[in-house]
Amino acid sequence: MNYSFLIPLSDLDDHHRPRTGGKAAALAMLAGLGFNIAPGLVVTTDAYGRYMKNSGLREKIAFEMGRKDFNDMRWEEIWDLALRIRSHFLKTPLPEPLKKDIGFALSGLFGSDPVVVRSTAPDEDAAAASFAGLHESYVNVTGVEEILDRIRLVWASLWSDRALLYRRELKLDVASSSMAVLIQRLIPSRSSGVMFTQSPNDAGQMVIEAVYGQNQGLVDGAVEPDRWFISKSTGKVLSHQAPAARTSMVRPASEGAVLSDIDPALAAIAPVTFPEIEQLWQLGLRLETIFGGPQDIEWTIAGETLYVMQARPITTGKTGGKDDQRSWYMSLHRSFDNLKALRGRIEQVHIPAMQSEAARLAETDADALSDRELAGAILERQRVLDKWNKVYHDEFIPFAHGMRLFGQVYNDLLTPENPYEFMDLLKGADLESLRRNRMLGQLAGMLKSDPDLAAALEAGQMPPDDGEFASLLNEFTSLNEMLFSLAGGGPAGRRELFGLLLTMSRQAITSKTANGSENLKSPRELETAYIEKFPADRRTLAAELLDIGRASYRLRDDDNIHLGRIEAQLRRAEKAARHRITRKFGIDLENFETAALETADLARGLTNPDFTPPESKSPPAEPVPERPQDIRTRQLSGQPASPGIAVGPARVIRSGKDLFGVQAGEVLVCDAVDPNITFVIPMTVGIVERRGGMLIHGAIIAREYGIPCVTGIPDAVDRIPAGAVVTVDGYLGLVTVAT
Amino acid sequence: MNHEEAKITLRRLLDLRYVGVLATSKADWPYANLVAFAVSDNLFEMIFATPRQSRKYENLSANPHVSVLIDDRSNDIADLKDAVAATAIGTAVEVDGSEKKRCLAVYATKHPHLHDFAHAATTAVFRITVEKYIMVSRFQNVVEIVP
Predict the structure, then answer these.
(1) Chain A: which residues have CB within 8 Å of chain B?
(2) Pair A160, A291 in one domain
(3) Chain A: nearest CA to B144, how far in angstroms?
(4) DSSP 8-state code for residue A12
(5) If you count residue pairs, one on A and one on B, with CB atoms under 8 Å apart, how many are there?
(6) What confidence category does residue A514 fall into, taking pLDDT thresholds of 50, 70 and 90?
(7) Do the chains contact at B2 and A715, CB–CB below 8 Å?
(8) Which stretches of chain B sit within 8 Å of chain A by CB?
(9) ipTM of the complex in this document
């Protein structure tokens, strides 16, 4: 055996720790002291180093990491970065000599026995231990080739989005970071759990959590555990909290592990017996003595034997101040089962409720209300909007992870050259925004074929009430009040909308459809190739994963349209209030931007006879930053989000009203594309956006229309002059400004 | 990097780097070599010295249009992220008399150890009037800086 690359747990001692990581070193020590530890070996950091050096991966990761300052990255961009790095690992095989060395040892030690493949990072007993779960583990892996593949994926998880979020704490650095991998024989667990030898709330207590089957269900949060609090000094059980129901467990399947129903006979009794609790208590005390402090222990029981899977010092897990949102980002990772449940709630409960809420609010004509009633309506609408914004944050955004889960499964299986090939399988859904755009196209088409009507609108006249145009227009505005609100609402908004339709009717808008792929394979071919990669007995799961991915993709866009319909009702009531306050007090609020005056101020203004608008909240006119004359942006590097090359004058969007000036053939330059503003996309030839990521709205809609798109350009609207001819390179993620 | 940071970065680069790559050409044949340079306070005058018998002197006599590349790469993989490169584009003229004296004073501040070389009878002192700098950071972010 090449001891540079591989060390059996039985031969490992503490001086190997820098090359094997703390987790493996601790287990080896416990095995030496007679504890039951699953036999295994460690693929050392030297193997990682050799792989990185010989394959050129270190340079590729350095390139990916260097594309943009981390401080300018949003979490979507960090996810995408991790996806690209993982793809590099997937596409880069082990060098032959390394593969031979590791493969030979694996074959000798495990044969065809199933194993668990886990990370054991050199810093794991220090910084990384505070952020458990950053790196990946694989349960029930069989066969040398499979294990070798998982080793690369564990290495890749050194650069997971979770690890990247905590890069500073982990000292994640291309030049020096390293990872060892622990491979152990799979223990066929009857019950498993974790134990904290010191309760976070009472230093005199230990906490034991236990589930049936493999520990994965508990660690992932998929299975609710039984929990015991025991006296640290006597081992006496102080309390036992059983789960609401013991319904499921994780057990090894033909490949990996699956969540399955629990035998009803087992469900009636706790996963561990009192003698086993006493055994665990004694284990906890011994490990505290050996390691010199409170321990977080993973354990499992097979037959009558208690195994230690992991022991590490208890850490607080605190990751930053109250403004540190990283734990929320981490919580966005959802399991397949969790995503299925989320989808059910979103499609069957939330969206119908949002639709009926928007319809209910729309029934009330704000203009017909008394001042007091209008004030009440404004506050109610704000409450409703706040409620749905919270649902959006808590449930809709996490559901967007369905796209990523599908993308990861797809990439792991098919190892495509383009890590975003999976997007071609998701797109083509009938998005709400595309339906809206088709209606706009229809309205513009009517103007084109009816020059008299077009001339009347041009002259400022209203269309006849009983005509087909007015009927479709009414349907359009009732469904898209947010768009109408962006135009300013009321007669002015209507004029803006007519202006947009007239522009569209005069310009040759090419009929862009969902065909913006660089992929030569049709979606059908891609789908077949994907499904066929699964064994016959798992193809239903494959189809379900694809379905979740597609729903996630569609809802990512549709959610905002539904939310926009509710917001439009608030804006409509606010507009009525502004109008009345302007008339009543002679204070010009009509030109106030929505955000400039708080909703509560408007409600007060309607009911308080002495109302004066707070001076400090007067909206500073959105200043167009003075562009230095001596510095010109020539090229900006972002993320390629939709392939293709486009050249056109920049239409820089600073407010909603700017959208109504868009002309065919322009490149849209904006801060963030929201589905409520994507009605102009069919007229544009390219999109440049400050927000970054492949799965943001701008990227989704660009790919649907086959328009080149570059995202993640900081200060895009300030750095690209309006009207400048820009080239959008959607292959490389570059925006070049003609100078 | 925003516009303000771009200016600061350029000044720091020009202050800290001692040598740049001067590109000249003659009869459509480009030629690049290292030169010790110094810049004026406003950054748009660049001074260097060269022996009159050098190839670059010969080229400059034929074609005064030049570019100079100044960068801070360290031949490390982190260069893709960290290195900054600025290319000055301008026109070089050999200076003499009081102008030569002024340019040599600028040059001497940065390169006191090259005093003898710069003042040698066979050394020509050139001043490049820089029309613009093209500065690249993070591999592909490019700005142009003009006087």
Answers:
(1) 58-59, 62-63, 65-69, 174-175, 627-628, 630-637, 714-715, 718-719, 732, 734, 739
(2) no
(3) 5
(4) -
(5) 66
(6) very low
(7) yes
(8) 2-3, 6-7, 76-78, 80-82, 134, 138-147
(9) 0.83
What pLDDT shows up at residue A262? 87
Is residue A89 predicted with pLDDT exceeding 70? yes
Tens of pLDDT, residues A159-187:
888 888 877 666 677 777 888 999 999 99
Beta strands A305-313 and A295-302 are: antiparallel
User: Using the beta-carbon criterion (under 8 Å), do A66 and B142 form an inter-chain contact?
Assistant: no
If asked whether residues A233 and A218 sit together in one domain, one would say yes
Q: Return the CATH number at A677.
A: 3.50.30.10
Strand spans (E) along A541-694: 631-637, 639-642, 645-652, 667-670, 686-689
CATH 2.30.110.10 assigned to domain B3-145? The reply is yes
Q: What is the rounded CA–CA span in Å between residue A187 and residue A34?
A: 17
On whether residue A526 sits in a domain, the answer given is: no
Q: A648-680 pLDDT, tens per residue?
A: 999 999 888 888 889 989 999 999 888 878 888
Q: Do the Cβ atoms of A719 and B2 come within 8 Å?
A: yes
Domain boundary among the residues A185, A209, A238 is at A185
In a domain, A560, yes or no: no
Range of the domain at A206: 191-313
CATH of the domain at A199: 3.30.470.20
Chain B hits for A728, Cβ within 8 Å: none
Do A270 and A285 fall into the same domain? yes
**Residue A205: band (very low, low, confident or very high) from pLDDT cuts 50, 70, 90:** very high
Chain centroid to CA A332: 6
Name the minimum distance, in Å, from the CA of A527 to any CA of chain B. Answer: 36
Q: What is the pLDDT of residue A329?
A: 67
Nearest-CB residue to B144 (from A69, A634, A732): A634
For B139, the closest chain A residue by CA position comes to A67
Claim to verify: residue A646 and residue A663 sit in the same structural domain: yes
A202/A253 same-domain check: yes
SS3 category, B63: coil
Chain A positions touching B141 (Cβ under 8 A) are: 635-637
Q: Count the domains in chain A.
A: 4
In this structure, the answer to whether residues A650 and A709 fall within a common structural domain is yes
- A635:B145 CB<8 A: no
Other CB atoms within a 10 A radius of the CB of residue B73 amount to 12
Chain B's closest residue to A630, CA to CA, is: B146
Average pLDDT (A87-116) is: 92
Distance from CA of A374 to the nearest CA of B (A): 45
What chain A residue is nearest to B142 in terms of C-alpha separation?
A635
Instruction: Give the model's pLDDT for residue A392.
Output: 93
Identify whether A401 is part of a domain: no
Q: Is residue A569 in some structural domain? A: no
Nearest CA in chain B to A715: B2
Domain boundary among A473, A506, A539: A506
Nearest to A66 among B81, B134, B144 (CB): B81
Q: Are residues A27 and A148 in the same domain?
A: yes
Report chain A residues whose CB lies below 8 A from the CB of B145.
630-632
Q: How far apart are CA B85 and CA A255, in angstroms?
A: 51
* A632 contact residues in B (CB cutoff 8 A): 143-146
Inter-chain touch B141–A69, beta carbons under 8 Å: no
In terms of C-beta distances under 8 Å and separation of at least 24 residues, what long-range contacts does A666-672 make, across chains too? A667/A726, A667/A728, A669/A716, A669/A717, A669/A720, A669/A726, A670/A698, A670/A716, A670/A717, A671/A716, A671/A717, A672/A696, A672/A697, A672/A698
Is B2 in contact with A67 (Cβ distance < 8 A)?
Answer: no
> Any idea what the CATH number is for the domain that residue A57 is in?
3.30.1490.20
Closest CA to B70 of B12, B8, B30, B143: B12
Confidence of residue A515 (pLDDT cuts 50, 70, 90): very low
Whether A177 and A202 map to the same domain: the answer is no
DSSP readout, A16-63?
Answer: GHHHHHHHHHHHHHHHHTT-----EEEE-HHHHHHHHHHHTHHHHHHH
